[in-house]
Fold this sequence. Notes:
single chain; alpha+beta; 6-stranded antiparallel beta sheet; 5-stranded mixed beta sheet; 18 helices
Amino acid sequence: MEIDTIRETFRDEARDLLNQMEMPLMELENSPDSPELINSVFRALHTIKGSGSMCGYSDLARFTHDLETVFDCMRNGELRADSRIINLTLKAKDCIRALLDETDTDDERARREELLSELESITKNSTLKAASIHAGHDEESGDAAVPRDDHFRIIFMPSPLILSKGIRVEPLLDQMKALGECRIRADVSSIPPLNELVPEICYMNWIAELVTDRGILSIKDVFVFAEDYAEIVIKYNEGFQLNNEVFSKDELAAAITRRFERTTVNVERRGRPGEDNVVFDRRKSDPSTIRVKNEKLDTLVNLVGELVTLQARLNQESSQAGLPEFISISESLGRLTGELRDNTMSIRMVPVGEMFNTFHRLVHDLSGGLNKKIKLVTSGGQTELDKNVIEELKDPLMHLIRNSADHGIEDVDSRILCGKEPEGVISIEAEHSGANVVIRVSDDGGGLNRDRIKEKAIAKNLLSPGDYDDRQIFNMIFEPGFSTAAVTTDISGRGVGMDVVRRNIEKLRGTIDISSTEGAGTEVTLVIPLTLSIIDGFMVDIGASLFIFNLSNVRECLDFNAESGDETEKQFVINIRGEIVPCIDLRKIFGINRMWSSYPQIVITEISGERFGFLVDRVMGKYQTVVKPLSRGSRSSDMIAGATILGDGSVALILDANAIIRLMSEQADSL
């Protein structure tokens, strides 16, 4: 493998580790003494440092080493996690990312030096404090809490299933030998006869006598990635350490017994004839993940899309030919193509929780910058979306969270005066809804000021004086340049952003809706399609031209006659079972004046919780649609979301129902 490929793999894995560090760091503020959280961050830093050094990232390795030292002190009880350490770690994480991206500048180097000075002061103070504490203990009781001799006895007792976790024992023993003068012997008493031996099981323990001046921390570093799958006893003076717990000599036996009652597998029974064998079978185990570039996934999806189009053509030809064998082959291929499509699309599906986790850092920084107490609560993180859709969603969601933090959540004093908890809450929820995912961003802040928004909208000629419902008023905040903020900040208040949020959501063929109660909070609801590549469509005929709706928006179809409504204009209303539904004549919208059907039909859709009808010549039915983007010269109309190639090679345009409704509403308001 070439060095460039190795370095690229390291960068990808290091970025993943940095992302995984954020959640434990956020949780450390509430649980500063949690060894699990501290070890999680320490291991990530330890891996980045070691792998970075091997891949030639010497500056990154040196910088990460000093940060790792801080968390090592925390593991040994010499330091306690506080807001200063967490903030420094978050800043250091950004520096590590810059080193990985190879965007190092003089400003970045100066920033790293400043962080290193602060980290050094923290570790120096902790060392002095620990030394004074240990000296006091020695004077009072003569019992040293931390070993200072150079002779250690290490007992390494791995879990029988440690090999199945991908951990190799031999390199660990070699690392221990490198620390000093070391003698290691293996305890083979548990190895069964050859005919009963299971190769996947580790039956042995190891006992080492080590003389070194490197200290106990270096010994623990050897086993840092194995301690979850083994028991490591380190003897020094009259005390012992069992993994990260300290025991006296009398307590050791009981401690080991308690631990092994929970973790030890009875290896003596493995492989005996006539008994159920518990053997690790790689073929049945959870498959390991592999990294695949987005470009390869996109190519695969495009090829499947072409296959879907070809299968539609084959299905059409077989129907016209009327040959039973031809039809049977076409139907079988159709089933296989459908399964291949579903499996291919699922490959690009990732949980939205990974995206949600990145916002905890954003809220943490906003809370400090705005001098407010804010926490982020997420739910539905297991909900899956197309990876490309998630990438497009990050910016809109980030802007909504920033708005909630700046405009929604009040400062601590104001919240207390209103009888609220001092800490504000921003919530993000996700759930599946048919072929869509619904994401709600809400806060328990002051809510939107309806009268102020209406007054500003009238002043900017966005609304004329009159009565409007809450939805019409609140939607004004999505207009370009609209803002009611009295003071402009670095975060928001310039009137840009919310219009971009709506534009980006609509580019995803999604919808956005807002509701608010003054004094209680605001909720923004996003409805996003699961994928942008292949959708279930609903085909209609308008003047011998074919168009497609997104099937997830279609609710029913009705026959239309002159008595059902007034179709003299582009827009009219009809009465459906006592409900007045606004309708749009697509024939007139697109200027199709020929070959009108004598028996037109209406497609009833539901957009953002409201029903709208579209007048068409004929309903064709469901059609599996491969979405193709329009060329730049074809983007004259916002009402078209894309195109698809039909089985006979002709093209059908995909309608953006939401954009059509908005355009017609704007024309109606201007009259």
